[in-house]
Task: inverse folding
């Protein structure tokens, strides 16, 4: 008399089978969608992305810029810059063109916004020139 040995593997329940069916359907749909053109475009995009990543990580200046851009105080500046770009893009077309002449220049110069802009550009220029001089002294 021969006895069959009972297996100790637990039976799969309905939820497990349903998940397996869903995964199989997903894989089948992905396989069907992968035409030669899509595979070519994906491989090109991956290649270009890796090339760009390599260039970014090898560029010391860009990596330094990315570190600075990640700081909170720089984030405030970036938000202000993007808001200013948007506001200027709305304001310039809505206003009449400048009339020109010395009187127009004086009206623009009296505007507190113009004075703040010049101050911002002056501070930026001062720090930019100091940094460039320092780099040339250290590297040259």
Result:
């Amino acid at each position: 008399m021969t006895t069959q040995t009972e297996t100790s593997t637990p039976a799969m329940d309905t939820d497990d089978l349903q998940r397996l069916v869903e995964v199989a359907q997903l894989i089948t749909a992905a396989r069907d969608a992968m035409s030669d053109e899509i595979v070519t475009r994906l491989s090109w995009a991956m290649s270009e992305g890796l090339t760009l990543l390599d260039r970014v990580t090898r560029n010391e200046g860009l990596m330094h810029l990315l570190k600075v851009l990640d700081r909170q105080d720089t984030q405030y500046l970036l938000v202000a810059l993007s808001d200013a770009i948007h506001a200027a893009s709305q304001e310039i077309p809505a206003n009449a063109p400048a009339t020109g002449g010395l009187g127009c220049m004086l009206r623009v110069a009296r505007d507190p916004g113009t004075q703040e802009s010049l101050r911002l550009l002056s501070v930026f220029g001062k720090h930019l020139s100091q940094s460039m001089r320092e780099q040339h002294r250290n590297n040259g």
About this structure: The CA atoms of residues 132 and 138 lie 10 Å apart. The chain has six helices and no strands. The radius of gyration is 31 Å. The mean pLDDT is 86.
